[in-house]
Amino acid sequence: MNGHVDSFGRAIVTVSIRASDIAAAHDLSAWIDTGFNGELVLSQEQIDDLELRPSGTLKAVLADGSEVVLQRYTCLIEWFEEDRELEVIANDGEHPLLGVGLLVGYDLHISYRTGAVTIE
User: Fold this and answer.
1) For residues 69 and 64, what is the distance between their CA atoms, to the nearest angstrom?
2) DSSP class of residue 43?
3) Which long-range contacts (CB under 8 A, 24 or more apart) does 4-7 make?
4) 22-76 pLDDT tens trace
5) First CA to last CA across the chain, in angstroms?
6) Of 82 and 94, which is predicted with more confidence?
7) Over the range 25-50, which residues count as b (16 or more CB within 10 Å of their CB) and which as e?
8) 36 closest CA partner among 106, 103, 119
9) Which of 86, 71, 118 is nearest to 16 (CA)?
10) Closest-CA residue to 31 (of 47, 44, 13, 18)
């Protein structure tokens, strides 16, 4: 999987997400966030647009040490040419975040010199 480093130094990859086996897929550009140990974070607006199914809540500790309760949803992501079901966490941010939960078992290479991002 290939991506790029944007002009702000963020590593970005495009992922294909859908609500179910029969739903249409939507491509989203996600920032790679190695400080997030989950799989994927989307804004509530994106979750609503994709019509994802709620699957519960999750207590999380934010970078400032505060605890919050976040809503979880289920989706399918195309990950290395296979559909993988995963939990999406809703937040108030604008941009999707791809976390370490999807990177475990893979190598992440980011070249700030060339602007190339590779997950293999």
Assistant:
1) 15
2) E
3) 4/115, 4/116, 4/117, 5/110, 5/111, 5/112, 5/115, 5/116, 5/117
4) 999 999 999 999 998 899 999 999 999 999 999 999 888 877 888 989 999 999 9
5) 6
6) 82
7) eeebebbbbeebebbbbbbeebbeeb
8) 103
9) 86
10) 13
